[in-house]
Design goal:
Layout lengths: L1 E3 L2 H12 L6 H19 L8 E6 L2 H16 L3 E6 L7 H9 L3 E3 L8 E5 L11 H9 L12 E5 L27 E5 L9 H7 L1 E5 L13 E3 L2 H7 L14 E5 L6 H13 L4 E5 L3 H7 L4 E3 L10 E4 L7 H12 L4 E3 L2 H5 L3 H9 L4 E3 L3 H8 L7 H12 L2 E4 L5 E3 L5 E3 L12 H14 L4 H20 L6 H13 L3
Parallel strand pairs: 2-3, 2-5, 3-4, 5-6, 6-7, 7-8, 9-18, 10-11, 10-13, 11-12, 13-14, 14-15, 15-16
Antiparallel strand pairs: 1-9, 16-17, 17-18
Helix pairs in contact: 2-3, 3-4, 7-16, 8-9, 8-15, 8-17, 15-16, 15-17, 16-17
Length: about 500
Amino acid sequence: MRPVWRVADVRTAEQALMATLPPGTLMQRAAAGLARRCALLLADRGGVYAAPVLLLVGSGDNGGDALYAGARLARRGAAVSALLLRPERAHAEGLAALRAAGGRIVDRPPAVVDLVLDGIVGIGGHGGLRETAEQLAASLVRHRGRDGERATVVAVDVPSGVAVDTGAVPLTASGRPNAVRADVTVAFGALKPALAVGPAAALAGQVELVDIGLRPWLRGSPALRVVEWSDVVDWWPRLGPAAEKYSRGVVGVATGSAAYPGAAVLSVGGALAGPTGLVRYAGGARDEVLREHPSVIASGGVVDAGRVQAWVCGSGLGTDERAGAELRAVLAAPVPVVLDADALTLLVDGSLAEQLRRRDAPIVVTPHDREFTRLCGEEPGADRVAATLRLAAWMNAVVLLKGDRTVIGTPDGRAYVNPTGTPALATGGTGDVLAGLLGSLLAAGLPAERAAAAAAYLHGLAGREAARSGPVTAPDVATALRPVLARLP
């Protein structure tokens, strides 16, 4: 997993590292990595020599990084122009280096630009962009390069204007993001939350981390961790020669109803795609489930289902008295449970919530934002990681807050973010598939937080895979899970 660090932790580490180095060394390391990435991008657009490059330079070290990187590009023959947003506060040494390398200071963007370097605001910024910077950020889409294509925008450390520690993005009066939208962000030393979570992550584009020697100086715990494919591979259950269906785990699925049989079919499909050896279905959509999945053992309710190692409950279950009884039976079982959709609505009942908090076995809840609001009485807000962790602590459960960058939080304060999400998954029934897969991972023996992180990661990949063929439906995602999981060892 890739650690993500808060601004205060990064600042402390930078100060400790700089105390061991000659003055300016850290900025030169950052500028070298930044210039290298820019040169590679320019190579794809006709080469560095004579390439028109525009630096948007704010005050402070972020502007200094841009100026020094611009100087390196100018020495390689690029036509570098710098627009200083606050000339009186521009980094003096960086400005001198740019001029010495042949760069120009301009008061308006040139007509042709291959690459724009966003050095307006760094990790110390907050509250969005000021008016002039906002106008420049909005105008970036109009810049064209020598090839007639839109200029490539590279953000220095973070896109200017984003809330670095939360990933929130302020909006302009017209409702547009009041921040730079980058194609590439070159981060220095450590990933910051705005590059991994919240709407800011979508503005960062492709993120490249440049090693400036900071890692040994980062202390304490990261703000969150980004799940990677290698993590899922390490966690995935391995089959031995003595494996049989019961030893692989049995997952119970209490979902669907006469009114919503599709939810049962989809959640069972997600469970069957996972690593367990047997799925037991308990609910009112028995006939539909068996028609689609004949390998499933089906019964009319939880108490008749037989022994399982984990339960999935809620998708399409309904919220009537029978549904409440089924949820109580699931919560009474001494095994891990996944609670989704209607089960979350039922938890608003205080007695069920109290039963939930008294459980010893692991719990994973999977709300989207509206379900989160029903559970908490307030929206997740700008800081989705903090909101997830508050709910996890209150419920004594692992919380999987669904979204483009799904956040997983644990009761003891650890947070993970899934990088594989896609807007293609914003369609009915895909959450049912996710819940089934998650239950299968729990039944196979994965700890709750790993099961949640792995399920979100693989579900996101399946969504991307399904989207290759056009608009995505939930059955498409269930089908796409199989080739995705086939890549696992």
